[in-house]
Amino acid sequence: MRSFLDGGPFVWLLLGLSVTALTVVLERAWSLRRDRILPRPLMDALADGDVARLRGACQGHPSPMARLILSILDHLPWPKAENVAALEVRARQEIAGLERGLVILEIIVGIAPLLGLVGTIYGIIPLLGDFGTNLQADNAFIAKGMSIALYKTVLGLLVAMPTLAAWSLFNKRVELIGLELESVCDALMRRQYLRDRGVGGGAIIGVGAEGVRP
Known about the structure:
Helix content: over 70%
Largest sheet: 2 strands, antiparallel
Mean pLDDT: 82
Structural class: mainly alpha
Low-confidence stretches: 198-214
Number of helices: 9
Number of strands: 2
């Protein structure tokens, strides 16, 4: 531990990145829980098929799913194509909200190893300079200095690897949530237009990691 703390500003920068990454991971783990995005009362109201109850469930349980459903219901008087267009806009906003903070993890994955490597090089350069100008240099001192310098590379990798794992996990979770939103929105849109307007067929609505796809 003492060797890490002796590593200078690069070590503290890497420790700061690790704290930032941990904060984002905990926040995303809380925000991407399924019951916060697709609340159980809302799913029960969807299964029931009653529009008034569905509106009440959406208003009582604000969530990405609720906002997408309200977008569909609010625009039912519109032609289906225009309703789809409005849903696309709303879905892109919701997916962007689900991905909030993931870019921070991606940046940390990229810069943590590089920062560690730069710190290592920065620590080795003066040691090699002293060794070249003084053949009687204390080899033990130089070896300790190189060891401390290499700790920065290790720390950079230790920060980047779990952050990469979390980033990949959250991206996959957003993708799976998007697929479930796609299924729910498609079923609701079809049911409402078939029942209320007698319109069959039409474009399938997709809510994926990049928004709603007609």
